[in-house]
Amino acid sequence: PTVTKDKVRVVLDAVMRARTLGADNDDIWKPEALKIQGFAHEAVEEYKEAITLFEDALKINPKIGVKREITSLKKKVGMIESDKSLKMIEKTVVPLKALETKSNYLLNIT
Predict the structure, then answer these.
(1) DSSP summary character for residue 38
(2) What confidence tens digit (pLDDT) does each residue in 5-39 have?
(3) Burial of 79 (C-beta count, 10 Å sphere; 0-12/13-18/19+)
(4) How many angstroms from the chain centroid is the CA of residue 6?
């Protein structure tokens, strides 16, 4: 059977209702509710929301089983590539600043 966005919204509503009725007050139920909510957001292609929910579930229960899902979604939305790009830029900027300082010293511009 095909899962429609309307059916996923029904699941999201049910999970949110369960959370407001007490699931958030229970350390066993809350990470499960967050995980289900995350999968529902993923199903409707709301990937950043899903990542946030999976990460919240993981903070409460490190064995909740969403680490690979988080990595996969981050790749999908480009978050991991962005992190790698930032690290590459940082690695480039430091040597450039050192080179600039050395050049200024050699040219007596300091």
Answers:
(1) H
(2) 999 999 999 999 999 999 999 989 999 999 999 99
(3) middle
(4) 24
